[in-house]
Design brief:
The longest helix has 24 residues. Helix content is about 30%, strand content about 25%.
């Protein structure tokens, strides 16, 4: 494994585990990575992208971990990373990453200035959907004597940022190319809601519509003498579709590396619940009370996991269902009264991204033994 940044670990406090410890002895609640599943997921994404000759730019907003991102680049052949916020990107640039895309708009002057400073040390890309944003980006780029690469973002179904039509994207791309201090890098076209459409055919159809818009934009830009180095988008739920289009050349999947209950629910072509990636991320919890008949209480509540995508699932325990969750407690239906105090359970979080941001450490486990710890390096970096 890649050596982690263990500054705090070396001090010997404020950690839930140490290398060599059994999983059953980890202090809970803790965020654990099953290394075999994680490594397999990274290899599967590498293979998917290689088979279609597209690049993978790993989305680091999911894990916010320098060590996870290093592994994705060194073992998964990712060409770089995506971040959503400037402060997040700063963590990765300080750690030595040299190709970082902010797959989001940056419009606040103070943040733009920080973005331009990062471009002194790395290739920095940012998304744009507003002509007025170009002047501010240009001023900061010229003030710091750097080039900021910009992508014209198209809203292909997400319903948040992005221009609405291919014609808008063509005009925006031309404006970027004509702006001092900026370089037109291509198109950002991510369809967020399509990632979680349960039915395979529905996901495929949603991406097919997006591709038509993206293709029209690319042809229009080409007619204006502009080529797109990057045509990007694609998350875990649809990467196989964008990668096979011959239009997209970068995939920005993130959750594939860990998976969660939400992604685990989507179906493959045969109607099975699968995206070909394994659950690698778990919230490890301990049973703290069994006094209620048919019910157990665990120690992983709302402060340990996000419920925006629903309640977690109990891993490998078909008879156990999560009933409810509050600040510090999680209630589980245990109809056969099988659970005992201090017993450890793995929970599959409903949504991995915000769950990861609640923890300081990833406890990396292989075959029931702690192998290493990785800091959640950019935890809380949301400005």
């Amino acid at each position: 494994m890649i050596a982690p940044d263990l500054t705090t670990l070396e001090l010997g406090f404020d950690v839930p585990a140490f290398p060599g410890m059994a999983e059953s002895d980890i202090l809970t609640p803790a965020l654990i990575i099953d290394l075999d599943a994680f490594e397999d997921n990274v290899e599967r994404m590498r293979s998917l992208c290689a088979s279609h000759s597209v690049r993978h730019r790993a989305h680091a907003k999911m894990h916010r971990s320098v060590d996870v991102a290093k592994y994705q680049i060194e073992k998964g052949n990712a060409v770089g990373i995506c971040c959503q916020k400037v402060s997040e990107a700063e963590v990765f640039v300080r750690a030595g990453f040299t190709d970082v895309m902010i797959s989001n708009e940056v419009t606040d002057p103070a943040r733009i200035d920080r973005l331009a400073k990062l471009a002194r040390r790395a290739r920095i890309l940012v998304c744009v959907d507003d002509f007025a944003n170009l002047d501010a980006l240009s001023r900061s780029a010229q003030n710091h004597d750097v080039i900021i690469e910009a992508l014209a973002e198209i809203d292909v179904g997400t319903g948040r940022c992005g221009v609405k039509t291919s014609c808008n994207a063509i005009d925006l791309g031309c404006a970027i190319a004509a702006t001092p201090g900026l370089h037109f890098a291509g198109i950002q076209a991510y369809h967020g809601p399509a990632q979680h459409l349960i039915k395979y055919a529905e996901r495929h159809a949603a991406i097919a519509l997006a591709v038509e818009t993206v293709k029209a934009a690319c042809l229009g830009l080409q007619a204006r003498g502009l080529s797109c180095d990057i045509i990007a988008g694609a998350g875990t739920g649809t990467a196989q579709f964008e990668a096979a289009t011959g239009v997209y050349n970068e995939v920005q999947a993130g959750s594939y590396a860990f998976m969660d209950a939400s992604y685990g629910a989507i179906e493959d072509e045969d109607g099975r619940s699968s995206t070909n990636f394994r659950h690698a991320l778990f919230v490890l919890t301990s049973v703290m009370s069994v006094v209620g008949a048919g019910r157990a209480v665990c120690d992983a509540g709302l402060k340990s996991q996000s419920l925006d995508s629903g309640l977690p699932k109990v891993w490998g325990q078909e008879t156990l269902d999560v009933l409810s969750c509050n600040d510090e407690h999680l209630m589980i239906a245990d109809p056969d009264n099988t659970l005992k105090c201090n017993q450890r359970l793995r929970l599959i979080p409903g949504h991995c991204d915000p769950t990861c941001n609640l923890h300081d450490w990833y406890v990396c486990v292989r075959n029931g033994v702690v192998e290493t710890l990785w800091p959640v390096s950019a935890r809380g970096k949301s400005i």
